[in-house]
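re the bet — no i am not wrong, look at it urself. input seq straight from the record:
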Amino acid sequence: MLRGSWIALIVSVTLVACGRAPSAGPALPGLPTGAMAQAERSTLPWRKITHIVFVIQENRTLDNIFGGPKPFPGADAASSGKTIDGKTIALTKIDLGKLTGTQDPDNFHRPWLWACNPPAGQPPFKVGEVSPCKMDGFNVAASPHPNYTPTASTDTIYSYVDYSQTEPYWNIARQFTLGDHFFMGHNSESYTAHQYLFSA
């Protein structure tokens, strides 16, 4: 799902040591002197990490940023998508600079279920089992409930952003890594996703 008003939020977090215990509850036990000295001498890779950078792109998918007719090399990225009636729609190139609120699809839990298109009688889904989602109902969100405005076209929902506008993401993926089979950890809305960010 797309939301044009969100382009990117990049947060740089520097790892720092905190020597103060939480204000409530007992203080956490410290490492024994020997263990502390051993940790200081450690040459494990994590001791070389000085920064962690979170790149948060809300309401976009791997296929939207890294897909299209020329997807990221080696990634499992799509150039088309299925509809709930069995049709195939090629992804349309969109311009991030020209997106407006009138191209915003319904972003709430109900259209998530439409996109999922689970078998009759589900959800709830059983935790730990393979997802039953067919993931072919995205076109339903192009015609949301009459009380929801604005509506979005299938061209907006089945879309990709040109490399010229996503080059920084591609450079990061080339230099580090790209999780092309990494999916959201919940089937709710933005508020819950923000808790994942804060927790991280």
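see?? The first strand starts at residue 9 and ends at 14. told u. also DSSP finds six helices and six strands in the chain. so pay up
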